[in-house]
Amino acid sequence: MVNKTVKKTSDSTIISLDKNRLPRHIAIIMDGNGRWARSKGLVRTLGHENGVDALRRIATASAEIGIEYLTVYAFSTENWHRPKSEVKALMSILVRALRKELSTLLDNNIRLQAIGEIALLPNEIQKQLREVIQLTSEGDRMALTLALSYSSKEEILRATRLLAEDVQRGFLLPENITEEVFENYLYTRGMPHPDLLIRTSGEYRISNYLLWQLAYTELYFSPKLWPDFTKEDLYQAIAEYQKRERRFGLTSEQLNENT
Ligand code: FPP
Predict the structure, then answer these.
(1) What are the catalytic residues (predicted)?
(2) Residue 11: pLDDT above 60?
(3) pLDDT by residue (tens digit) across 56-87?
(4) Domains in the chain: how many in total?
């Protein structure tokens, strides 16, 4: 039983998780803030405010059960095209959350990281991000990575440009470009690929998120809107992940031979 952690959901369902088979890295597309607000007759920004509460819940629960990396889609490159007022509100929620949640991150030994075109964010956010990243850099329990102004296609193009520059300068030979070399040019350099991707709100899309990194990730779609997503929903997603057989292109028989 030492390897099992037993979690009880609000309806008293027991979820049993195998501690030895936890995903190392969970990626989340936090979708449904707007619909959550609309369903309650509230303005969309209140959906995002409640989305921050959900993120706090899920990040602390993840760290608590031993997840090493949690990477969340907080603002996509495409989100810049939303109405100006919503973009402004999201930026102000982000800057406030960074200030307010510093203590949550420190208390839980979580280090903050960011991926995406950070230079496109307002200066105030860049400054705040740098500060929180620096102040939490010793957090060795879990890395919480915010994908901000992030587009996976743009990340891959950027990596290709940087790589081409290194080839042009003679630092690298084209024949030496392997997957491992290419990955060193991605924002996620040094991080393991996500084992599990969770998308909330009943949408079944990847939406330009971690396209390279998700090649062999298990996908889990929840009908819950992000502000309603609870730690029990997280355990449920992990329990489902633990039932899957990850074959990485091999056969079941090959996998069983190797165990
Ligand atoms: C998707 O909901 C969510 C976003 C575009 C932003 C995600 C942001 C948060 C959870 C809060 C802010 C995050 C941080 C890190 C401070 P949607 O607006 O697309 O919802 P809809 O599809 O129902 O309209």
Answers:
(1) 31, 79 (proton acceptor)
(2) no
(3) 999 999 999 999 999 999 999 999 999 999 99
(4) 1
Q: Is residue 54 part of a domain?
A: yes
Any atom of ligand 1 within 6 Å of the Cβ of 74: yes
Does ligand 1 come within 6 angstroms of the Cβ of 29? Answer: no
The residue annotated as part of the active site, out of 31, 50, 108, 233, is: 31
| Residue 11: active-site member | no
Identify whether 67 is part of a domain: yes
Strand order in the sheet with 218-221: 110-115, 142-150, 69-76, 25-29, 196-199, 218-221
Q: Are 121 and 74 in contact (CB under 8 A)?
A: no
Whole-angstrom Cα distance, residue 190 to residue 148? 19
Average pLDDT, integer, range 97-104: 97
In a domain, 120, yes or no: yes
Q: How many Å lie between the centroid of ligand 1 and the Cα of residue 195?
A: 22
Residue 103 domain flag? yes
Ranking 16-30, 120-134, 154-168, 236-250 by mean pLDDT, the lowest is 236-250
Task: State which of 29, 30, 80 you would mutate to test the pocket of ligand 1, scoring each by most atoms of that ligand within 8 A of its C-beta.
Answer: 30
- 181 lies in which domain range? 23-244
* 8-state DSSP, 244: S
